[in-house]
């Protein structure tokens, strides 16, 4: 009340709701095999600042853009867990990310993945484990962002999330990654391939220094679980950086986590089965692998003159002077380190060389004036900082500069954020990693189809055979956001029921160089099953006909519209050019 006793008028502040605000917060998540990170930017700023979360629970005092990708569940209550750099009461679950794609093949020289047995012992689905970790990481990141800006403003902002995935990830694994993020409360979310994100950030940072339109670059994203290769040509530098992908990416499960496994195998060979059985249960052993990880993995340069010391405190190992093991210290000589490193380095060299050769052949076929020139190979990711990897690649590609860019460890997560700032950089075209198509029953041709099963069709009164129709081809240039239509046809009896308007169709893929004419085990596989729901479509739009058997039928024609996104395909159902009905993609 005022001094006269009258009620003062209330001032109502109408804050814009989230969906009314034009301000947007872009949050990028790099969910890695060994380390994970988060970065963000406010897209409404004239020159958005890409900011990494640098402090994490359990790592207080250590400013770093990533946190270990590990989780440890309470034995009595699986809803409680410690994660990342926290102190863990028991053995952690490492490699959470690999649980989403346990069938991804690894090299023969590495021990078999324990992902499936880890899941069985946990008693939780892989998607839930990933969701727990991603959710914990995101909640912490939001608390840190809140300490930088007013909480009311943060609540008002629209939020757009983008999560990076390996280029070699299967579409099924990508779908599981999306499910995990949504279960963690992160939505709306899009995916981007890790090397694409790294390329955008790295080249965007150098566009004023050394780049020219027409330059080609190879990005080698050497992470903990995977090594991905991707190549781009610069199509524009102003008013923003624009890139086009040159050839299909290559990659494999040859990340630096494999070096840790090979180190542990080397320790086993050094001390013998009996000692190793007891050693691996000790604190000394638990400290040895991180010591190798931190002090040897990136520092080793490949010289036989180098040597490093790994300590197994209180392990009571027998001295073995011949093999440089004394007083629980193993003196790793340069030749010992090379035996650990070389199988993985050899594989990475092969992947890089294949990518460089593909780029050269592609540009020569196009008559490009710089066809034989690859400007640089960029090494990013945690293992991208390896001096030995750089030296080996430089020896193999003497005419190409090998660059380990500044901030390479956080290049992926910052590139993920950058991908949602189209005013700064964009990828205008990409290449298909595999063939995509559908199988359909076609009229039997005695000349060409005699070795294949024929089926009599009553409505048409003819023999038919199942053949493939490919709509996207491996290595095909695809414009970003390009939409491709896959036509489907079904014939229904005139007395059909509403449930008959639910159709299941398979999207087929092939990794072969040349796609096969017929579906065949080994050369084709199911990418996903598409459930099309046309119950809401006006029946008058269906075409009536009389079959060869004299019965009445309805012909139902519709299309699957596939739109190319940075790491996924968006599916929609169209009927006579209009998006209607609904569609679900089942990858299980």
From TrEMBL:
Note one Pfam family from the annotation.
HSP70
Q: Which GO terms describe its molecular function?
A: ATP binding; ATP-dependent protein folding chaperone
Sorted alphabetically, which InterPro entries does this protein's record hold?
ATPase_NBD (IPR043129), Hsp_70_fam (IPR013126)
This protein's record includes keyword ATP-binding? yes
Query: Keywords on this record?
Result: ATP-binding, Nucleotide-binding, Stress response
Q: What is this protein called?
A: Heat shock 70 kDa protein
């Amino acid at each position: 009340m005022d001094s006269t006793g009258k009620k003062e008028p209330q001032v109502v502040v109408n804050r814009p709701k989230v969906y009314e605000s034009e301000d947007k917060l872009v949050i990028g998540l790099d969910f890695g095999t060994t380390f994970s990170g988060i970065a963000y930017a406010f897209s409404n700023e004239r020159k958005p600042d890409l900011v990494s979360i640098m402090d994490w629970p359990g790592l207080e005092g250590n400013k770093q853009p990533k946190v270990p990708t590990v989780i440890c569940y309470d034995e009595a209550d699986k809803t409680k867990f410690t994660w990342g750099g926290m102190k863990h009461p028991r053995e952690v679950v490492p490699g959470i990310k690999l649980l989403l794609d346990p069938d991804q093949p690894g090299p023969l020289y590495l021990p078999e993945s324990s992902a499936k047995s880890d899941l069985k012992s946990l008693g939780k689905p892989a998607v839930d484990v990933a969701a727990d970790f991603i959710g914990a990481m995101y909640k912490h990141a939001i608390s840190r962002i809140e300490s930088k800006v007013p909480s009311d403003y943060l609540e008002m902002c629209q939020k757009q999330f983008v999560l990076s995935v390996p280029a070699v990830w299967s579409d099924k694994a990508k779908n599981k990654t999306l499910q995990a993020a949504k279960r963690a409360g992160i939505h709306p979310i899009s995916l981007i391939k890790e090397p694409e994100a790294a390329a955008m950030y790295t080249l965007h940072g150098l566009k004023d220094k050394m780049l020219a339109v027409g330059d080609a670059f190879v990005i080698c994203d050497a992470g903990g679980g995977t090594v991905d290769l991707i190549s781009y040509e610069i199509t524009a530098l102003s008013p923003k950086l624009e890139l086009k992908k040159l050839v299909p990416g290559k990659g494999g499960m040859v990340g630096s986590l494999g070096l840790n496994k090979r180190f542990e195998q080397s320790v086993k060979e050094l001390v013998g089965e009996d000692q190793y059985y007891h050693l691996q249960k000790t604190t000394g052993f638990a400290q040895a692998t991180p010591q190798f990880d931190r002090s040897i993995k990136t520092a080793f340069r490949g010289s036989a003159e180098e040597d490093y010391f790994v300590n197994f405190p209180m392990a009571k190992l027998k001295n073995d002077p011949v093999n440089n093991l004394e007083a629980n210290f193993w003196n790793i000589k340069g030749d010992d380190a090379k035996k650990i490193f070389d199988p993985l380095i050899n594989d990475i060299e092969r992947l890089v060389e294949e990518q460089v050769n593909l780029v050269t052949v592609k540009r020569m076929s196009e008559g490009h004036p710089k066809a034989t020139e690859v400007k640089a190979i960029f090494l990013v990711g945690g293992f991208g900082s390896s001096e030995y990897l750089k030296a080996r690649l430089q020896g193999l590609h003497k005419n190409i500069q090998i660059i380990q860019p500044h901030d390479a460890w956080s290049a992926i997560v910052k590139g993920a954020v950058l991908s949602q700032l189209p005013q700064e950089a964009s990828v205008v075209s990409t290449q298909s990693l595999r063939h995509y198509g559908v199988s359909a029953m076609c009229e039997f041709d005695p000349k060409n189809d005699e070795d294949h099963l024929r089926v009599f069709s009553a409505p048409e009164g003819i023999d038919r055979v199942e053949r493939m129709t490919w709509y996207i081809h491996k290595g095909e240039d695809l414009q970003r956001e390009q939409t491709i239509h896959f036509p489907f046809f079904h014939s229904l009896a005139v007395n059909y029921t509403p449930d008959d308007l639910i159709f299941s169709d398979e999207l087929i893929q092939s990794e072969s160089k040349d796609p096969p004419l017929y579906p065949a085990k080994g050369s084709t596989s199911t990418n996903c099953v598409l459930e099309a729901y046309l119950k809401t479509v006006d029946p008058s739009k269906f075409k009536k006909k009389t079959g060869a058997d004299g019965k009445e039928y309805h012909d139902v024609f519709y299309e699957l519209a596939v739109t190319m996104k940075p790491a996924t395909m968006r599916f929609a159902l169209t009927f006579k050019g209009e998006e209607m009905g609904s569609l679900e993609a089942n990858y299980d």
